[in-house]
Amino acid sequence: MQVAVAGAGVIGLSLARSLLQAGHEVTVYDRAEVPNPHASSVDRSRLIRYAYGRQAGYAGMVDDAYAAWDRLWAELGESHYVRTGTLVLAQPGATWARDSANALAAMGRPVEWLDPAEAEARYPLLDLTGVERAFYVPSGGVLHAERVVAALARRVRALGGTVREQCPVESVDTVSGRMVLADGTRGQADMLLLAPGPWAARLLPDLEQRLTPSRQVVTYGDIPPGTRAQWDAMPMVLDIGKDSGFYAVPPVLGEPLKVGDHSFSLQGDPDWDREPGADELRGIFESAGVRLKGFDAYRLRDGRTCFYTVAAEERFVVEQRGRAAVFAGFSGHGFKFGPLIGERFAEVAAGRRSFESFARWAEGEGG
Ligand SMILES: Cc1cc2nc3c(=O)[nH]c(=O)nc-3n(C[C@H](O)[C@H](O)[C@H](O)COP(=O)(O)OP(=O)(O)OC[C@H]3O[C@@H](n4cnc5c(N)ncnc54)[C@H](O)[C@@H]3O)c2cc1C
């Protein structure tokens, strides 16, 4: 089959890789250079975590996601992942930590609950004043997102696929599989896979009602001198309250400490306002200050904006439309599932799995 993929983020490239391995002819088009620094997939880090609040369906997909990453690392001959473990802080009045722990226990992965004093004794960099309790799981870690996307693009080319950069798909006819590129060239494919990230509604305007691009600011900073050994032993920290929260990613994979914001802005346009302001950067970075002892010695280095594409209940939107399939709405948690989604969709293309069951699984409904 001839397959055209619109979008060379982690999803489009993972689909391309798996379909090439299944013997299809694949061309990937991207509106920008690859990796596109403005795409959702392109940042220094993305997390793999089992803690998923009440979204137990997605927690249940993480084992398979890990296995898919391992197959990718074996193929690449290199890994862009490091395990850190996960520390989840439970805020008074918030249920996310408890819901996550319950879901993990139901999966046969009990968590280790710590009271604040125990957690501070184990992780002396932390100040857990006001935290109800915390849980630790040894699983979870950090993917170097930009290196993954670059490696996937190289892999797609090595498998005989074509990646056309600076080549926007202007419009598509999902019924016939025809498409028009921005330079006016027309093309047709047996199968059209649309994975345009936060630009999805530009290509498929009806998605505008269901998907909200959400501008998020992430920050990077330097840890105080003399704390390297303690940071090397630190897990990722997820501090999720009822209405707000932050996450801190330890300085791993040669990158600085990262601090991001858990709440969705639910506004912005992925082509505009991409430079974060100094106040925004400071606000996000300092949100971690309340949890880090001696925060005055931490130094904000820089930051960037990234876009979530938020769907209802953060459930991925995977739909078949004629000769096309849409992959969108990966919200704030799609990266970890990229290679797995590629592999599962190749099973659909081979007729070994129905599209309906694949779509339900991608919505976090299990299966
Ligand atoms: C700040 C932040 C933190 C996150 N943290 C995590 C995390 O810890 N763990 C996790 O699993 N996930 C996380 N995510 C979510 C994850 O990064 C996304 O769900 C995932 O990267 C989406 O990938 P994608 O391929 O769908 O989209 P993108 O990476 O945006 O790729 C879409 C590509 O399509 C191209 N494109 C768009 N329109 C066209 C067109 N018309 N023609 C041709 N090309 C086009 C774009 O140039 C782009 O390269 C986070 C996201 C953000 C923003």
Description:
Residues 3-347 form the FAD dependent oxidoreductase domain. GO terms for molecular function: flavin adenine dinucleotide binding; sarcosine oxidase activity. It comes from Ferruginivarius sediminum. This protein has 367 residues and is of the alpha+beta class. It folds into two domains: 2-46 and 145-210 and 313-362, 3-Layer(bba) Sandwich (FAD/NAD(P)-binding domain), CATH 3.50.50.60; 86-138 and 212-310, D-Amino Acid Oxidase, Chain A, domain 2 (2-Layer Sandwich), CATH 3.30.9. The protein has helices spanning 10-21, 56-59, 62-76, 96-106, 116-122, 145-158, 200-203, 228-232, 278-286, 338-349, 355-362; strands at residues 2-6, 25-29, 46-48, 81-83, 86-90, 112-114, 133-137, 141-143, 162-164, 169-173, 178-181, 186-188, 191-194, 212-222, 236-240, 245-249, 257-261, 299-310, 317-321, 324-328. The longest helix has 15 residues, at 62-76. The radius of gyration is 21 Å and the shape is globular. The chain starts with a strand and ends in a 5-residue tail after the last helix. Flavin-adenine dinucleotide binds next to helix 1, strand 3, strand 14 and strand 18.
